[in-house]
Amino acid sequence: MAKMIALNLRTQFVLFVLMLGTLYIQMLVINPIEVDLFGSGSKGSYLFLPHGVKVLIGYVFGIIALPAMIIARFIGLYVTMGWPMTEAVYGTVAGVIAIYLPLAVMNFLFERPWHKPLVAFDQPIGQFRIFVILVVMTIFANAALHSSLFHYEASFHLPFRYLIGDTLGAVVVFLIALKYRAVIQRWCVAACPNNFSTSDAKKING
Amino acid sequence: MDKFLFPSIRLQAVCFITLTALLVLQIYVIHPIEHLLLPHKDLDHASLMYLPHGLKVLLAFVMGISIFPVVLVAQLVGFYVFFGASLNDTVIGALYGSLAVFLPVILVNFMLARKWHQPASTSTNPMSLFRLFIVVVILSLFLNAALHGDYFANKGTISLPFRYMFGDMMGSLIVFGTAMIFRHQIARYVIRKHS
Lengths: 206, 195
Fold this sequence. Notes:
Helices cover 71% and strands 0% of the residues of chain A. Chain A is built from eight helices and no strands. In chain A, helix 1 (9-38) packs antiparallel against helix 2 and helix 4 (85-109) packs antiparallel against helix 5 (127-149).
């Protein structure tokens, strides 16, 4: 059984700020544009960036990013978005499950410890394909769990808004991450060296 | 098997009859029992043991996209004729029910860099087929719960998506367990009949 080594506080804080920052961008920039374009009728955005960030963090760091994710999500829902306590707690739990359950399932598929990040270079399958499957699985889980949360406001197109919004959000975040992948990889190796083999770490650090 | 080939008519008929029979069993046997034992407002929309989902996943996994028309038609007949659903609910339910099992297979094929229509069960990847099947089942659970949960949200309670997930999971477990018991006979039959 591979040992699970906790992330240091500084990295947790950086991840927390990243997730909360994306949520603020979503609320202050993307949502108002969407309201202007499509009206303010329904829950669910057509470009939900925070989901992409969460998936990427889960993919790169695995379960060790859980504390940062829980706190960022709860503060984001309860304080920033002003959800009632019950809904904020449910939304937090559902959002976290929607990331980590698919991650555990993918690890199960590859016969690896359930908590490990999927970022690795020794898979027979391409990393891009693994990431896409993880994204799709998290999107399905998120849509299923949130359709229960917004039960009373449910409409025919709500799950599709979730599916499209989370997909586009993940694509945008993935493209940004791809552009800055060298920087991100170096930072990940420095923050969590046990996720990478020595040869991979050397390769990343040049 | 790179070319897209439909299975023989006989095999399609067998699959259609099996799926329709399971839908009938669900409607006339499991549903009333559940109604007596575990009555719930959502019971008319989501069972806690939905066997047809397990069979649909298994068919999609073993036979690939070529069995899509059979699954779709069997559900249309099952919902409209036997369950007495409205035409709208029948069409949406059958479409969602089919998408929920075939989309995961397409995704798994994409992950394994195979043709989108191929059966996931013919993968030559060293990855365990059992694990691959579990992934397909879980993907289909979430997708089915998301799609149906919202479509029937106004008629059901807050627990509806969870009932979908639980029912589909139980159904998949039972069907998969049964298929495991008779796996040699099933494999021999499918190999003999699948063109």
